[in-house]
Amino acid sequence: MQTATWPPGGLALVPHNLARDKCVSRNDYKAGSQLLSITSYATTLLDSEKGRRCDFCFSLPRDTTHLKRCSGCGSYWYCDEHCQSAQWQTHHKRVCRTYNPFLVSPEYQALPDYKKLDSIMLSHVIAQLSLLPDPYAFQESAPSSLLMSLIAGPDKSLAPPICPVKPIPPPGLVQKLYARFGNNNFAIHSHLNTIGHGIFPQTSRLFNHSCLPNSAAKYIFEPGAAIRMEVVALRDIAKGEEVCLPYLDPALLETREQILEFSYGFQCQCPTSLFLRRIGPLTDTPAVENEMLKISEELLEFVGVDSTKALISLPNKPLESLPPSLYCVLRESYMGGLSETFSKASHEGQYDIALQSGDTLLSLYLLVYPLNYPQIGMHCLEMAKTIWNVVITSTDQNKGRVLKDQARRYLVLARRVLDVFGPEGDEGGPLQEIAILDGLLQSAKTRE
Ligand SMILES: C[S@@+](CC[C@H](N)C(=O)[O-])C[C@H]1O[C@@H](n2cnc3c(N)ncnc32)[C@H](O)[C@@H]1O
């Protein structure tokens, strides 16, 4: 049984024919509304972030020498005594002594990287449960009991070894928890870059997956506070509508079905998944450069991205209306190739190539991502930055004026999309970059 605040205010859980329950909205929500704000139950930093940011609140200090290292194990870093004490009380006091010997043990060393992360997260959860007033006894209505009530994933593999914790957990508990890990483990990101993983049982219990989601999760780091996840409406959501999150990147058009089946045990029934299943294996992209160019032009025209004209708003073409001649653009290698060409060309100053591949990439994003998906806004910002680089290297005043207008238009679009998602993670980030570039464009205009 849950407390009166469960599910939170504007959300309700109702039965679903395939997924046990689904979360529906009790109200009409506007795009950008916050639907849920919840603190993490357990988190783990990626190895690459260890010693760069606080292990408790994930905040990034201005100077890493300001981080305080645990004097016991020397393997956890904190903003200050407050963060250190919070994590000590939550789980660290149970693993501080055993952590380093465990990390060098052959059984831990033999694990693949993703299982190493699971092993540490599982160790944190077990240590946390060992510190309950009655160790390992789940209290009804507590996040720990919600965690155990989650649907177990289809992966029946053995739980990885965990860092020794006393008192020893009861037999079967680690395995039972691990069965709920694969499909309830969130990648925590800052400006969309993954920096760690976290368990948020309330979010897991509430939201089903859609490859065309109407909401997305973002993360808030506040010095001294546990990491918070906020679920944001990407578009207007009507009262009674199901609220869904993406469990994976919707752009994984060729592999997402397999991943969902393998890791979560279901087939997505969203319109884009039904469409992809109906059209079957995708045709190859042409090997000849001219043919590729034609495909790119056809895609731009179909989606309605015409870089020679003012792009006032972002078109929203349903994937299901794609003509068969363009099915080949849905190959993951096509998006990967475009993305590589765009970043290489903008980096190396081959601006014509960058802008052409960037517009094609934008068309593809608009086709495969739902409305206001942050990746679309990030790409519009990258386009604006690329055009600005052309402006500052150009000596032709007329061309410069046209380009500045074009950059401004991309910035407007970037802001429109990213304002819906709002800021996440570390200070700075895309919204701040938009403000800076906007300032540069304004002052360039006054100089004209
Ligand atoms: C994180 S839980 C979501 C909450 C779940 N509906 C519940 O009642 O606890 C994930 C599990 O829900 C089910 N699920 C989520 N999205 C689904 C979907 N689109 N279609 C079918 N089942 C889904 C799968 O069993 C999946 O492993």
Keywords:
single chain, 448 residues, alpha+beta, Beta-clip-like, Serine Threonine Protein Phosphatase 5, Tetratricopeptide repeat, 2 domains, 3-stranded antiparallel β-sheet, 15 helices, binds S-adenosylmethionine
Task: Give a brief outline of the structure.
The protein has helices at residues 81-95, 99-103, 106-109, 113-130, 143-148, 173-178, 201-206, 256-264, 271-279, 289-303, 332-348, 351-368, 374-393, 397-421, 430-447; strands at 11-16, 20-25, 34-39, 42-45, 68-69, 77-78, 186-190, 193-199, 208-209, 215-220, 228-233, 244-245. With 448 residues, the protein is α+β, with helices and mostly antiparallel strands.
Describe this structure in words.
The protein is an alpha+beta fold. It folds into 2 domains: 11-258, SET domain (Beta-clip-like), CATH 2.170.270.10; 281-447, Serine Threonine Protein Phosphatase 5, Tetratricopeptide repeat. The chain contains 15 helices and 12 strands. The strands form 5 sheets. Strands 3-11-10 form a 3-stranded antiparallel sheet, with no helix packed on it. It has a 3-stranded antiparallel sheet with strand order 4-8-7, covered by helices on one side. A two-stranded antiparallel ribbon has the order 1-2. It is globular. The model has no long low-confidence stretch (mean pLDDT 94). Residues 18-21, 150-151, 153, 183-184, 204-205, 208-209, 264-266, 268 line the site of S-adenosylmethionine (SAM).
